[in-house]
Design brief:
4 helices, 0% strand, mainly alpha, 97 residues
């Protein structure tokens, strides 16, 4: 089921890019933001640090760029998920097993 969903998402993205090639850069940028957020979270987890401790470790205020990158990624993911859900509902695709 997970592979089907990922395949559907990849196809959805490709169709959007074909309709509007300018979206390719946006999707690339979002992928980088998500990758960066995941890497930062993994690093913090590996170091067993809180957000505040990790921010001090990298020399940035906790509320600054680290959290901002993660918040932007979450916001974009929510928008993408909302669009996907709408598309899936139109095609009667269920996420239930």
């Amino acid at each position: 089921m997970e592979k089907e969903i990922m395949s559907y998402i990849a196809n959805y993205i490709q169709k959007n890019i074909k309709k509007n090639p300018k979206l390719a850069k946006e999707y690339q940028r979002e992928n980088l933001n998500i990758d960066a957020a995941v890497i930062l979270r993994d690093m913090r987890d590996d170091l067993e640090m809180s957000q505040k401790e990790f921010a001090n470790y990298v020399g940035k205020p906790q509320s600054q760029e680290l959290n901002q990158a993660i918040k932007e990624s979450k916001k974009r993911r929510k928008m993408t998920c909302k669009a996907l859900r709408s598309s899936w509902q139109k095609k009667n695709i269920s996420l239930q097993k």
